[in-house]
Amino acid sequence: MTGSSPRPGDNDKTPTESSANVALEQPRSDATAAAPATGLRVNTGAGATSDDETEQSSDGEGEEVEDEEEGSEDEDEDEEPKLKYARLTQHLGPLYRNGDATSTFLVAGDKQIIGTHNGNIHVIQLPVFQPLRVYHAHSASVTAVSISPFPPPLTVVKPDAAPKAAPTSPRRPASSIGEGHVSPAPPTRRATQLQNTVPNTPSNNIYVATSSMDGNVCVQSLVDVKDVSLRNFARPVQAVALSPDYKHDRTYLSGGLSGQLVHTVGAPLGRSTATTTGAAAQAAGWLGGMVGASTGKDTVLHSGEGTINTIKWSLSGKYVVWLNEHGIKIMRTKLHLESADAEDAWKRIGHIDRPQTAEWETMASVWKGRAEWIDEQAVEQDEPQEALLSPAAEKLKQQQVKHGKTIERLLVGWGGTIWIIHVHPGGLGAGKHAGEKSAGRAEIVKLLRMDCIISGISLYTQNLILVLAYCLPDNDEGEDDGGNARGHKHTLSTGSEPSGGIRRKQNNQPPELRLIDLTSQAEVDKDGLTLSRFERLSSNDYHLGVLPAQTVAAAASSRGALETLAGLGTDMLNAALNPISLFSSGASIRSKDSNETASPVKLAAASALLRSNRGSVHPNLTKPGVKIFIHSPYDCILATRRDFGDHLSWLLERQQHQQAWELVNEHPEIMSTAADASPLSPDHTQTTDDFYDEAASLAEGMQSMYSAAEKEKRRIGELWLQELVEAGDWVRAGQTCGKVLGTPDRWEKWVWTFAGAKKFDEIVNYIPTERTRPPLPGTIYEVVLGHYLESSKPQFRELLERWSPDLFEITTITTALENQLKYREVREDSVEDGETGRDWRIVVESLAKLHEANGRTRESLRCYIKLHDANNAMRLIKDGHLADAVADDIPSFISLRVPPDEAKKMSNEELEQATEEAITLLVDEAQHGLVKPDVVVEQLQEKKLDLYTFFYLRGLWRGQGIHEHSGESRARLVTDSQSLVDNFADLAVHLFAKYDQSLLMHFLKTSTAYAFEEAVKECDRYDYIPELVYLYSKTGQMKRALTLIIERLGDVSRAIAFAKEQDDPDLWEDLLEYSMDKPRFIRGLLEEVGTAINPITLVRRIPEGLEIDGLREGLKHIMKEHDIQHSISSGVAKVLRSEVAAAQNLLRSGQRKGVKFDVVVKRGDHVDVSAKDVSTVVGTEKPEVRHDDGDDEVPKPPGKKWAPGHCAECCEPFTEWEMETLVGFACGHVYHASHLLQKLSPGERVDQSLVTGVGENVSHRIGAKVTHAMLLREKIAAGCPVCKETEET
Questions:
Q1: Which end of the chain, N or C, is less packed with Cβ atoms under 10 Å?
Q2: pLDDT tens digits for range 98-129
Q3: Contact 322, 255 (CB under 8 A)
Q4: What's the rounded Cα separation, in Å, for the pair 1139 and 1145?
Q5: What is the Cα–Cα distance from 253 to 242, expressed in whole angstroms?
Q6: pTM to 2 decimals?
């Protein structure tokens, strides 16, 4: 079958037909329908085939859909469905009263609008299923519903802003038709008006248009009951579509059996005060007879192609699509047109022919087409991530997205065919249409054929199509679907009465909800829906509606939704919840047009309304994701995407416990959905206290969520373990225990289970290795350890290394180990797996570790010594200072790391390395006084272990083990340690001489405790000349020492150094005398003696005629050294002279420097300055010194007489009222400033400012004083004139 071609003049493209995997052939009238697929059956309370049944009973809200096996055995029954289902019929009880049934419906925003076969319109608020308005609009079946704007906006209520209510009253919960509620007393007119009003919120401010088989189109404002328009077209109307801007342009399109697409503009509005709920009555109240009396304008846009069954206005309002018997038509509307493009208004831009088959010729007027304009923002993305694209592909994709913003997509399902159409905006053409202006064009991008009749279609995700499929019955009844003859197609295609009223064989199949992958064109999921009386329903009786993901969930989670329902602000809602606050607050809550008597009515109605709505929110509506509504005349089904909770239930039903446990482990929030989904009881009224309690317990809620998740994990884990154990898979069961068990009682149960089955190996690696809270019983660990102690000692050792000793009773295990040794169940010479003494070592080693963990370190040390485990033995001794525990056998302790059989084969270096740690430990303990050196040396000498004794004494001498100390503390400790060797000085000399000559010299020079004769004897035995020289020089035998150097060593350099060190002239004489006949010694003396002796004496002692190699160089060297010495001495002398001269000059200048001071008289006979008595007249007599006591008198000179405390010039005494500045010198002479200046500068005028000083008024100014002192210092820089004259004479 080929795709339809566009008619001439249309801007359509001929599509390339694509074969869908979901549809093998286009169904024919003589074809046999496929068998129904395995699906999901909705559980109904009563039988589904009773003719008298009009309502379905239910035990609880939203009965979930259960799996039913109806397919063949080769079908994959383990594949999880994509969707879950819940029956909403019980929430729509008033809809099905009086034998009424659903004929059409529409869901958008937060509302569901349902038309019935009796002509009633039910506007229901979601998600609480609260009837906002129920009115009787038609006298026959409602065929179509349209709203404007579509989709309606959701109300976002701000906390500080109350929604504006309608002028009359907040809202009307339900009409008498919908509720059938009888009040105990007739309500007042004000209360009735309150109940009949819908709050004027953005989501409620919509218009509802309905068409009917009675030929009428009714347009009703949801908020204002007076704003209603009723128009009769004299023929059954099958479809109606309101303009997206109907509120302003009052425009809608309609069509039906007349085959005309009618454009209606400006229908008159009704204004009435009637209280009836019927829309026809509303219009009749102000218009009377409306049929034929309307002043609105009708324009036929298209006609002549048979019945029009579907009309849809695009979301942007630019395009409209309608379906008639010939195919699909798309037209450009007048909305959003530029003035230059006004002629494009209501111009058809595309036509797509229906398939040209015999079946389509018969059924085109019967099958109802389903069309949906795709809302790109509301469609969810596909779950799998897209594969990485190449740069070119990514660029192409971006271009498609850019151009796609101006393209509107249309999805059409009609009969068994699906079209995906792209509608492009108008503009200048290209190619052969270059230069031509187009209003737009339609392009078929994909064509799919199904093996069913499409009863509903929608785009589920960007790559999945949702199809409500009506499967043909088993026998050939395709023609009976709509009627028996073509001439009655208008009657049979309307569905004006339920299919149950048609007399025919009741063998129709239940509908199926399918998900089709657009890429692979394969069925992703298919669920069969068993609805009430499906055997008597046709494809036109089923309807599909989809809400985007964010619509209902947002409305359900918002507190403002309930405020909107009540038509109240935030303050009024609080007043309704807590009426006491109305009277306790200072503000009055009153509307502008209300009186005081009406307020209690509002509060009571609002409070009762909120209480009644508490338990009516279906849990599936509050969850995120797309909401799918499926309506039949007698049922309403909600389909939603399965969440983690549903997946968990599905896994548990199939006993896939591992996957279920992993799911809860990765998503613990699953367990919170159960608490969130459970509604409040209807009789519970939430107060403001409840609100604050919920906020305060947020943290507790999070904790309980994870606690619930942990409990669920433990429950599933138990089932998982039981499944594995029953299957005999103990290995996986042990692995699973490590994952799922979290409490001590569960661990105890399952460990005993494994132990009873002798499956220790399968569980032992997963038992907790750390202490739990509460702790596991230690018996568990003891039993497991006891098992492996008997069966596998290597495994026993591994468990002891892995498990902390805190997990079990240590004494129980140590007793078992000691019994193994006691009863010789293990022996040192036993062979296990080719290894001698393996089990014995394991037992002793384990015993040592447990003793140490239990605080019995001495027993542990004995075990380690048995094992020759030097590392652990040393560690215990160091940490616990347990060296005294091995003091009875020091040699064995030192040789702990020395293999007994290889001790004689090892070198001294290897033995030193093997015993280093033990020696260091003993030295450290000797310093602490725990193990005395006497004990160590005595035991070593008894066994003639001289080498070990040497190691020990050397360690004491060097201070091993005290490197952690520093500074003076360490030096002191080393000295203390060396003093311990003095008790064994002769033994130390012997051992040092035997094993370490360098250490011997250090010991001889440092210690004084050894015997000289023994030391000389040891040094002479080993021919240690340097040590002998030191010993002889220490006892004053210098010549003997020098003789040893000269005769035994023949080292002239050492002999010269020895002579220099002793600085003995006799020793130099002996050296010169011995060297005069040895040229080598003479040359050495010339080169190295330096200035120690007179070189002339050395040169003169050289025998004449003696041939000496290098004599010239030696003489040059000695002369050079003397020159250098003379030069250095001369330089030092010059430096000293210059420094002395500088110091003398400094002294003189200081003595000559004048000192300014003030006279302070302390007592009559006190003198502050004692100085020499110098005559003021230059003479030849020497001055005498005057003392402070005044006993000696100064000889009176021929002129004036000076005395201390007097001016050296005028010889006048100083008083405490001196007006002049006094100047004194270090020599003791003091002058009046005027007299001193006259003396130093005779004949010059004295500056009085220097004489009188700075005065009292500026005494506090430091700058003036400094300036005065500086000027005065310049004048008296020559010094004391009296002393100067004395020096000159």
A1: C
A2: 889 999 999 998 899 999 999 999 999 988 88
A3: yes
A4: 10
A5: 6
A6: 0.58
